[in-house]
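INFO batch 0412 | record 1 of 1 | parsing
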Amino acid sequence: MSKTRVRFAPSPTGFLHLGVARTALYNWLHARAHGGAFILRIEDTDRARSTDEFYRAILTDLRWLGMQWDEGPEVEGPHGPYLQSQRGGKYAPYLERLMASGAAYRCFCTPEELEERRSGRSSTEAEAWKYDRRCASLSDEETAAMTAAGRPSVLRFRVPDGVTVFDDAVQGHVEFDNSEFDDLVIARADGTPTYNMAVVIDDMDMQITHIIRGSDHLTNTPRQIMLWRALGQEPPVFAHMPLLFAQDGQVLSKRRGAMPVGEYRRQGYLPEAIVNYIALLGWASQTGREILTPEEITNEFDISRLNRKSSTFDPDKLAWTNAQWIKKLGVPERTDRVLPLLREAGLVESDPTGAERAWIESVVGVIDDRLKTLRDILEFDWFFLASDVGYDSMAVSKVLSKPGAGDILAGLQRELSQTTDWSPTSLEDTIRSFAEAVGLSAGKVIQPLRVAVTGSTASPGMFETLSLLGRDRVLRRIEKARELAS
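INFO prediction complete | emitting tokens
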């Protein structure tokens, strides 16, 4: 049996979004599950819309998601080049074979002539009109004469009679009556192949054994199978998975504003969480579990178990999955993941070591159950790392402006300045004793203290927060808050 070889062939006309990333993932998983090769091919022949920015982003995003390719750009391999725009020399021999066998012929009909023949019919007939094969019966002499006269021509594939049948690994048994298709243009007037022809040649040249893609390509498949067989080879196994929909019921696509994978990275999503979530958008573990490592998914993955029904992308479920993955990380690794964000925000200057690193790990660890994304640390933990604290106007209005808040802070400042044991337990005893002494509930005392040292009404546990902030910083912030308090 030949080695499993799959390909992911994006067009660099936009950023990678989760729907396309899912296609890449299912290909990557199939290759890894069968000890095969995952090939990355960039279909960049749309020069007007393809950009180097999109191309580079695709490579970056795939690597970030852990989907390293075995052959492709920057890796290369025996079947390159892997940029379609560099593969021009690969196509001519295949086109010549089709011409020599009679499976293809030159068509000299101009676009204007085709439109005239189509538009001269009723609206219903015009919509169903297919190329009438006017050039299919030209003799060799007539073809040569038109070519010598400089008349431009395209190359058309002669669709055979009969039915094209294949067993799709997801959709099951599929049949298409060949009479539904007209003679496909497979090469433009300049000799460059059209999409279906180029894809078949590339897949054939790269020895692809399985084509796993969205069901929107299903109608391309019979055309491509005909071309494979006309070139004397049996086509690979096809697996057409249902499309991924947005919550508004529309297909998730880059043209409809689907968020790029790179934006999820910038927002603090973990690649493991994204892979985990999109793997389950069309496939399910037999264990029934929803949090799975890439290794666990690979060990179970089988394209025959992909769902035939479409799935809907749920951003809330992705956020939940991401939160579960953050909790799975140990504090040291979680710290490694958030440090780039802290540096970007100017809260740390370089990679901390020693006591500073240990302190940052403590800060990261104190809020692990509240993080949905890594970037949430900038909301929940910024006051730990900032040299000074800014105050939320609502918190000032609702808490510090209340009568008596200034007296509470003055009393706390006095008590805490005399405290030498700065452990959470000791701080809790001190604050609760103070509240009892002034005849207030602990909550009435803790809330203005919370706003004073964090700038807001929400924070991790108050006593752990005070301990981590340290005596000098806490007293300095209380002093500042007293200026705003009533």
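INFO post-check: The two ends are 81 Å apart (CA to CA).
INFO record closed
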